[in-house]
Design brief:
The protein is built from 6 helices and 5 strands; from the N terminus they run αααβββααβαβ. With 215 residues, it is α/β, with parallel strands linked by helices.
């Protein structure tokens, strides 16, 4: 792991811990899983050898999250982004942790960023979804070299001509809900807003789709 990646991990961990502890957020409680990746660098999960093979087809259950993933990844009408692969294992915290989508901007090489995306069906909370994608981001910061060594791509991925170390160093985050987000408790909305603003100050952009009215 590079010194820059270690600094990114520590910056994000501190941002989330400080926001959660602030009086404005009303003492939000985190799951044991989220506490684990927020504690310190040594508790972040190490990568494991992954023989991914092909990713599975959509679930037979209509409207499921797996179906939504494939709907997004095969959307040829997206003029801004191209999606490269889905359900990527990034590490281990109380079970396998898989990123929903990895993509990148369309356009010239100089202006393109990679995108880590967590998808949800309508009704999910954006704050909880944000914590998920932040955990994947931190795991990639730590595990990128190992992911390249292990060639972590599905054999039927739309694109495999990228390296995870390049994702690590030039990436933004996207959380997206089909059908809109669920009801929002004010402390969680304040925390969401504060984390997004603080992360942007240290060079990590986070997008929320559809946009919501933050406090």
């Amino acid at each position: 792991m590079t010194p820059e990646a270690k600094a990114r991990i520590e910056n994000v961990q501190k941002i989330v811990r400080d926001v959660i502890a602030s009086p404005e957020c009303g003492g939000l409680r985190l799951s044991e899983e989220n506490k684990e990746w927020l504690e310190k660098i040594d508790t972040l999960p190490r990568f494991y050898k992954a023989d991914l093979g092909d990713y599975k087809p959509a679930s037979e259950k209509k409207g499921g999250e797996r179906e939504y993933q494939r709907e997004v990844v095969y959307n040829t009408k997206d003029e801004r982004r191209e999606w490269l692969d889905i359900e990527i294992p990034t590490g281990w915290v109380r079970g396998h942790k898989t990123l929903d989508l990895i993509g990148r901007d369309k356009g010239s090489e100089d202006n393109r960023q990679f995108i880590l995306c967590e998808l949800k069906k309508g009704g999910s909370h954006p704050f909880d979804t944000l914590l998920q994608v932040l955990a994947y981001y931190l795991m990639i910061q730590q595990n990128a070299e190992k992911m390249d060594d292990d060639d972590v791509h599905h054999t039927n991925a739309k694109c495999k001509d990228f390296e995870w170390v390049n994702v690590r160093d030039n990436v933004r985050l996207l959380i997206q809900a089909k059908g809109g987000w669920g009801r929002h408790r004010k402390p969680k909305m304040i925390a969401l807003d504060e984390i997004i603003k603080a992360c942007e100050k240290v060079g990590l952009k986070i997008e929320v789709d559809p946009k919501i009215n933050l406090p």
